[in-house]
């Protein structure tokens, strides 16, 4: 009997060990989020993530190659602290990089380049993988930290017979200017979800092809018609969509490109000229905007209202109390993990490190933005300027988080006119 109990305990211990290994290494998004939340609570139980050390900084060096072993020029390599400070370098023609001024500590380096999957160091056993960290020591350069980037697979865009187009009706708004437009709802099935919050807005009159705008909104479209209706009244064919997949921004991006494909094929009747194509995002849907721009080159201009540009800095500002993340974004931020050990999503959705291939950019931001700090657009504008990338930056003193649903004041009207002028200039190739 005692021997049998011993065997049972041994088996249970083994199963518990395997469960812990699986929990620690599983790439399942739900398990990863739960693991990050537990880690966050434990770290804050012991006083929170540590501030930067006062010891002499160290450095990191290595080479970035493609899967064939060829060096990659212009790849971005990044380290991040637990609080979201970043240390960045770009690779030379020979694929080498050197990051200096790194405070001592443990980091998970990450690298990326347009057209490639981002890469991290990891160890895998039986299909389970865990991020590898490395130690930066005071006054020492950690050498030969090499990474290989594999080519990114294009998103699968498939149109089918699931499309349903509803009858067209007329809609009117009073702000920022009194405007009317024709409105058509449509929906379709993709990857297990009915994408049903997509609407087409077009002018009441006229037959000529219209420049097309894909507008990604941070809430149900009918709650935000003060944006698509005025743009449609000014001569745009506006596809306005609210992404429905939560944190799965890549699947949302595929949904949005599928929306465009239905329009391009004439499956959604319109006057749209999809050869003149603008992409517009606002607030946290700027993550979708910049991700789309990293996945396709079909847009001629992008406009971002009060947008995110550096997720690492946003995490830092939240940790330091200079920015706030409202529910459910506060929980989503915790579920991402700490930037030093889980930099993947922070890096992917930080457009300031992924500007290669972007079209001209229209940036608009209020100085008093209480959700997405004004500094986000300032940092992006500075990087666009450094690279000589075409952009226009409009700032608004006293304005908080871009349009409000009841806004009809002079500042909001000026923001709309600035948006319209910037889009038209870049669509005209000026």
Description of the molecule:
The protein has helices at 2-25, 29-45, 228-233, 249-264, 286-295, 311-320, 329-335, 344-348, 374-387, 410-427; strands spanning 58-66, 76-80, 86-90, 96-102, 105-107, 110-112, 119-120, 122-125, 128-131, 134-136, 141-142, 147-149, 164-165, 169-173, 179-190, 193-202, 210-216, 237-241, 272-282, 301-305, 361-366, 391-396. Helix 2 (29-45) packs across helix 7. The protein is 30% helix and 28% strand. The protein has ten helices and 22 strands. The chain is an alpha/beta fold. The strands form five sheets. Strands 13, 14, 15, 16, 17, 18, 19, 20, 21 and 22 form a ten-stranded mixed beta sheet that branches. Strands 1, 4, 11 and 12 form a four-stranded mixed beta sheet that branches. The protein is globular. A hairpin with a 5-residue loop joins strand 14 and strand 15 (179-190). The protein has two domains: 58-149, Immunoglobulin-like; 164-310 and 350-427, Rossmann fold, CATH 3.40.50. The protein starts with a helix and ends with a helix. The longest helix is centred in the first third of the chain and has 24 residues, at 2-25.
Task: Write the SSE topology.
Layout: H1 2-25, H2 29-45, E1 58-66, E2 76-80, E3 86-90, E4 96-102, E5 105-107, E6 110-112, E7 119-120, E8 122-125, E9 128-131, E10 134-136, E11 141-142, E12 147-149, E13 164-165, E14 169-173, E15 179-190, E16 193-202, E17 210-216, H3 228-233, E18 237-241, H4 249-264, E19 272-282, H5 286-295, E20 301-305, H6 311-320, H7 329-335, H8 344-348, E21 361-366, H9 374-387, E22 391-396, H10 410-427
Parallel strand pairs: 1-11, 1-12, 17-18, 17-19, 19-20, 20-21, 21-22
Antiparallel strand pairs: 1-4, 2-3, 2-6, 5-10, 6-7, 8-9, 13-15, 14-15, 15-16, 16-18
Helix pairs in contact: 2-7, 4-5
């Amino acid at each position: 009997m005692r021997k049998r109990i011993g065997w049972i305990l041994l088996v249970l211990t083994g199963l518990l060990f395997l469960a812990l290994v699986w929990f620690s290494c599983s790439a399942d998004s739900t398990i990863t989020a739960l693991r990050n939340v537990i880690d966050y609570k434990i770290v804050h139980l012991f006083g929170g993530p540590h501030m930067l050390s006062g010891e002499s900084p160290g450095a990191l060096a290595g080479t970035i190659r493609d899967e064939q072993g060829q060096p990659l020029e212009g790849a971005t390599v990044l380290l991040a602290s637990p609080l979201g400070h970043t240390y960045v370098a770009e690779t030379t023609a020979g694929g080498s990089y050197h990051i200096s001024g790194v405070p001592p500590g443990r980091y998970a380096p990450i690298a990326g380049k347009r057209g490639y999957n981002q890469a991290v160091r990891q160890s895998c056993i039986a299909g389970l993988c865990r991020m590898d960290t490395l130690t930066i020591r005071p006054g020492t350069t950690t050498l030969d930290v090499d990474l290989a980037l594999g080519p990114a697979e294009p998103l699968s865009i498939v149109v089918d017979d699931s499309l349903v187009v509803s009858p067209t009706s007329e809609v009117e708004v009073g702000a920022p200017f009194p405007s009317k437009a024709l409105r058509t709802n449509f929906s379709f099935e993709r990857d297990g979800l009915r994408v049903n919050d997509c609407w087409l807005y077009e002018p009441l009159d006229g037959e000529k092809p219209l420049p097309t705008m894909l507008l990604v909104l941070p809430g149900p479209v009918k709650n935000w018609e003060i944006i698509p209706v005025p743009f449609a009244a000014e001569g745009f064919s506006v596809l306005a969509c609210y992404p429905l997949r939560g944190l799965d921004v890549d699947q949302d991006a595929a949904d949005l490109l599928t929306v465009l494909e239905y329009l391009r094929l004439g499956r959604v009747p319109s006057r749209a000229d999809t050869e003149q194509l603008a992409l517009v995002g606002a607030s946290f849907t700027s993550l979708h905007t910049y991700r789309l721009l990293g996945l396709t080159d079909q847009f001629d201009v992008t406009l971002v209202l009060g947008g995110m540009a550096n997720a690492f800095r946003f995490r830092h500002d939240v940790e330091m109390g200079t920015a706030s993340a409202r529910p459910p974004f506060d929980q989503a931020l915790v579920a991402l993990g700490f930037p030093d050990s889980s930099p993947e999503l922070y890096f992917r959705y930080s457009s300031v490190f992924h500007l290669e291939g972007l079209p001209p950019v229209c940036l608009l931001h209020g100085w008093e933005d209480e959700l997405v700090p004004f500094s986000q657009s300032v940092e992006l504008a500075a990087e666009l300027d450094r690279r000589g990338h075409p952009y226009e930056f409009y700032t608004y003193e006293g304005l908080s988080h871009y349009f409000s649903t009841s806004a009809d004041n002079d500042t909001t009207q000026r923001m709309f006119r600035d948006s319209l002028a910037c889009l038209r200039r870049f669509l005209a190739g000026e």
